[in-house]
Structure formats: structure tokens, C-alpha cells
## 1
Amino acid sequence: NMAWAGHCAFVASVNGVAVVDVSDPAAPQLVTTLHGGGNAFSVLGGADQTLETVAAAQRPDGRSVLLAGRYGEGAEASPAVPTPMDVFDVTDCQHPQFLTTYSWPRNVHNLTITPDGSHVWATMPVQYLDISDPAHPSDYHDLDTELIKFENPVAPNQNSHEAWPSADATRLYIGTMDGYEWNNNQGGYTTTIILPEQIQLVK
């Protein structure tokens, strides 16, 4: 996967996160490769298995943040395994500044940052984190318990591969990977978020 901030692309791979300067689209330049606690080891084995677990956003104050986590293939049924995620300030995208490593208490597959850059959603299972102070992530919530209420009893344990917040951050779109749901043209949930612990199912 790939994330963007400023004139840089952040390309996740099995060897860290490559920072590519694309200010001249005809001649992109590799600036550096990021390594750290969040992208240093994967449950899949091997080093730097970030793969899909990368996201970036530019905040209204002009500051940009990059998140690079350890990629987890497991779904919501996976046992709780602390999953490291590195947080970088990439306001000057050619010179990323490492801020901290946050350990998610459960598996993490994908990361999506809200448009204002203040919150992040993780999937497999769906989890939430406040990154308004990117050096000190806080207010962790595990939404899996709430979402279980809406699981199909015939095919439980929805594999929430994607979770995308709306532009105003009041609604979260959760795309599932469950075969039963897809076969019935119900490959996603739309969930209205009031507070992370108070969820109203829309579809």
C-alpha cells in the first residue's frame, strides 16, 4: 500500500516504508527507508512487513502525520497480540521525524486516518485511537464488542478489512470480507458513530 503527504509518497513493503520525493513527477527520488518498532516484525514472519498497514494525513494546522504499523493477516478471531505502530511527523516529508511507537492490544490489518488527522481506525478487528497529539496517542477503544451485536449468526466474525470515516467524521463505513455477506450483496456495513463506544447500525 501507499500513503501521501506533501510531495512525498510513502510506499509500504517487506523492507520498511520507502519515502519517495515526487516533487518532480518525471523523476521521483528515493529519500530514505523508514524502519522501527511498528514496521520491524510481522506475524507473517520476516522483517519490515508493513505492507497494508500504513496511512498519512495532513492536518488543518499544516502538520502531517504518518503511521506505519506491523501488518497482521489475522482477522477478528485472532488472539490479542500487542501490535506496534510507529508515528512520524512528516510535515517536512523529506526529513521524517519519529515521534513514538504505540502498541495496539489486538491485531491490526489496515489503518485509516480521519480527514482532520486527529483520529485513526484500525481493522481486523475495528479499533479506534485518538492521535490529536501524535506523540501521545490516547483514548483507545475496541469496537469489536459493539459490532458483534450485528454479526450474522450464520456467518459470524465479520472480517472488517476496511474502515473509512466520512469527511465530517460522523459516520464510519466498514467493508467486510465475509463470504456469506458478499454472496448476498452485503459486503459492507454503514455505521453511524456518535462516540466510539456508542454505535448505531445503519445498514
## 2
Amino acid sequence: VIRTDTIDAIQAFSIAEDSIRTSKMSAEVFGWVDDPVFGTVRSHLYMQFRLSANAVDFGAGAELDSVVLSIPYAGFFGDTSYRLQIGVYELDEPMHKDSSYYSVRDLAVQPVPLAKVGQVEVHPLKKVVVTGEEQSPQLRIVLDRDYFIKKMLQKSGAPELADNAHFLPYFKGLMLKAEGKESKGCLVYLDVLNSLTAVTLHY
């Protein structure tokens, strides 16, 4: 026996959460999207980095060639043919591993960007070649060379690069900021815990 009924109208609506925990996740959401159903969503990313080795010493006469921020993709939402405008800033306050961070909180950053990239093409399914080696799809941004000469190379062998206990208060981290609104945009999921996520100094 099949029974049916009719309802004149159903009214449905969504309620925004006051805050969402955004820390301690393997994949972080970044970017912005103007969706006809969900509206405009914008998501920035705060990151903390650690030394890959203690007692960093670049050697006498070291010259910095370039600095690259790399973060592998873990997925996407929206149309990736739309480009993103991205700014990268140095954090001006520390992040703590034993703390939880929520979507309503903004961290202080230095006013001068370390990179300001307009119209970045997002390729979450396209592998990249780095120094002759094929790697998983990733977001790659070239950072300010002069800044890292002063921040890192000129501290070669100094206490600031001795270990992470000294390094983390010295270099608090980076903010990846989704800027601009010149298209419909897209959101990408970034695998921040991947071993390829790094700030790499080529010297």
C-alpha cells in the first residue's frame, strides 16, 4: 500500500554558526567563492613553520636565490578556472600548539606583504615538476627574497636558528590571505600537514 500526501509549502532556512574550530585539521580551506546558493565565503589561512634541522648555518658567503612557499592541494570547491588574488603576510603574534583557534578570530600580522600575487591560477589536479622531480599538485608562491636575506641568511648560526624553541618566537608564521573580488572565485583544500608543505630557501 502506498500512501501519499501533499503539503502546500515548506519554508527552510539556514542559521550561521557563531564560530567554527579551524585549527588542528589536516586539510584547511583557503580562498573565496561567490556561490548563488550559499553566498560569499572567504577563508584565510594562518600557518606556523618549524625548522627542518637544528643549528641552521648556511655557510660563509651564502647567497639566496629564491624563496618558495609550497602547500599541496587536498581538494577544491567551485570552478577552478576562476583565479585567486593572494597576499602573504608575516604573523605578528604567536600561535600555540596546545590552543584551539576559531573562525571568528583574527591574528595580528605585519602590514607589509611578503608576496602579493594577483590572479593566481589554481590547478588542484595538475602535478608539478620541482628541480626535475614530479610532485603532487600544489600551490606555489614566490616570497620576498630581500626579506628572507635579513630574516634568515643574516641569522645563519645565530641563536634564533638554533632550535624551534628559539625559532618560533622569532618567526611566528605566515598568513595566506584571500584578497580581491574580481571573479566568482573558488575554494581549495590545502594539505598543511603534508611533508611538502614548506617555506624552501634556495641558495
## 3
Amino acid sequence: LIDAMKLITLLLLVLGSAAATPATIPCYYSSQGSSWNLGFMTDSSGYFIADDRGNPTGWEYLVNVCGNVNQGGLLPTSCATTTGSNGISSSAAAGAYQFTAGVNPVCHRLSGPVTTANAHWSVLDAANPAFGVTLNLTGGDTCAGFDSAGNPTNLPRSIRLDFFCTAAQTGIFSSSTTVIEDSMCVYHAWLSSRAGCPEQCG
């Protein structure tokens, strides 16, 4: 009986470890006397973001906060290996994906593996930190674009996640949001969330 209990305990520990979704970067940020702790949002299954403009481009998005998105689950199989405009393929972990569904699905990594080198925090408005906080993820697949001189080049994809302080938001954040391409290969999502409110706001 004792050995059986030990085995059950070991299995529970293993399963608990497998189910854990640890952050790969610090999920705490402070600036100008305000601080945010978004650790509770880290979920490797990812968060689906639908463009509330009626999805005019056909793209859909899956992101994690402070960590990578697991392959499988909500991600289509086309996301297992993606290829940039420079012909380089990647099967590495990523914190954000952009994809289409349908008969011929397409997928792009919008970031590389989430590390402190390619994930950066900032306040939305330096004059009013209570407005919210931003997580910028970089290092994704390249896309064909132009440099500042107008010459053709390959630009890395990235995504900026803006968490607007919305105390009345009941869920993690509204999955219906606006996603635009600020500039070539640079995506920007507006997320209404309680997580955007500084801890000092109560």
C-alpha cells in the first residue's frame, strides 16, 4: 500500500510538472512608481485573438504572455515549421503566431523563442502610467519589405501587445480586438484587460 501511494504521489508530481506553464522571462515590470504583474496570464496553450474589424486580412493570432506557445492544441499543423521570405525555416519555440485557416493554411512566427533578448516591457503612456503596459515580442520569421532607403530587404516580423487598463473587463482580456500592421511586418494588438492596471490602482 505504501509503495502504491508513493507511485501515485510520483505520478501526480510528474503530471503537475508537465501541466505547468512557466514563464520564460520575468512577468513583472515597474516604471515611474507603478508596477504590473502579469504572471497569472502565462499559458502555453496561448490566447486566441480575433481582429474585430471583421478579419479583413484573413489572419488570426495566437499569443502567450511571458512564454512560448505550445505546438499542437490551438495551433494549426502549418505552424510546426514556418519559412521566412529569406528562405530560412524555423521549428523553434515562439511566443506569437499569425495564421490563416482553410484548405491551404499559412503560418508565420511573429517572434522567436521568448527571452529577455526579444521581449521588452514599456508603459503605454509615460505621462500616465495608469493607462497600461506594453509587451513587445520580436525576432519572428522575415517578410519581404524595404529598408529606410527604399531598397528591398527581409524584415523580421514582430508583434506589440498593448494592455489597456480596463478594470471592468471580466476575462483575461477581450479576445475581440484590433490588430493592425503599424509598418511592414510590425503588428500591433490593442487588448482591454485588468492586467493593464498597475498594482497601485488596487
## 4
Amino acid sequence: SHPCGKVTGGEELVAAMLMHFKGLGLGREQFMVVRKLFEPERMDLDETAIRDLELFETMTRRDSKGSLFSVINHCLTPMGFRLLRWNLARPFVSAKRIRERHEQVGNLLDLGESVQSKIRAILAGSPDIERLLTRVLAQTIRPQELARMREGLAKMHQLSRLLWEALPPKEKKLRELIDQLRGSERADRKSTRLNSSHQIISY
């Protein structure tokens, strides 16, 4: 009698969930991708492992201060904060992916302190674009939030231009990432038109 039947690949579960959202009258456009329940290249740490490793809080005081996350977290955006937390709880087990990650981090470090300072200056104060985008797709975003969305997209475009100019041509992986960031330019222009219609920003 389970609504999804005997789930093997998860397709039935996804279909039932989307139908549930449709029944509630909620939009489904914000679902860009469906992640696998288990990713072969990652290890999903259970609650016991997360607690024993003190990833997010200490065992004795149950305090975030002193945890691994508190030591390495230097994120300047809400998106980075969530992504770092997600990656800590699901570390790579693939040697290839680990080497790729080390190489990408090394390439960013090789840019030098001057470029790194500019990157951090751009990221500082960035709005939560992921959550604002959800409001855009659900058509519930307010004019003030739309202004913040435009501000964040402009920052992403500025960041992509900085990295494109600073990275050597051989860094293919990072340049592919920059190409994704450059897609924000189109969204930025669309957001600008929406802002003009709401008359909430003037220059």
C-alpha cells in the first residue's frame, strides 16, 4: 500500500513527491536537479560518525566552537556555508575526485594574495542567491528581495570576470566553472529589467 510501491531506482518516490507538491499548489520549477540517494564517489557519514569526529559540535560541551567546521569555515556567503557543511558530512572516497579538488584549490591559491583579497571583497555581503532564486521561481519574491537578487548576480558576474582574467588558459576545470558563473550575467540583465518595472533601483 506504499504510494511509491517497491522503490528500486527512486523514480516512483520522485514522482510521488512532485505530485504532492502539485496537489499543494506549489511550483516545481525550482527543482533543477534530483540528487541520487547514494553517490558512489562519496561517503554519507551517519550521526554517530559526525558526532565522534566532532565535525559540527564538540562531544563534551555540544558547542560548535572547537569543532572541525568552526576551524575551517571562512565562508563569506550563505551558499558557501551550506556547501562546506554538506561536503564535510559527505566526503569523497574517490581518489580521482580528491586529487581534482586539491588541484582546484591549489590553482586558486596560486592566484596570489592580491587576487584572493579581491575575490573575498566581492563575496563579502553577498545575498543568499539560492533562496532568493527559489522565491523568484515560486513568484513570491518581494521588490526589496529582487533588488538583493540583482546585487548578488552582479557580484557573481564581477567575480567571473576577475577569475577569467587571472587564471591561466590551461586551467580547464576552473574555466568551466567560470562559464557557469557567466550565465548569471543573463539573469542579471533580466533582473535589471524586473527592477526597472518595480522602480526600486535608480542610478
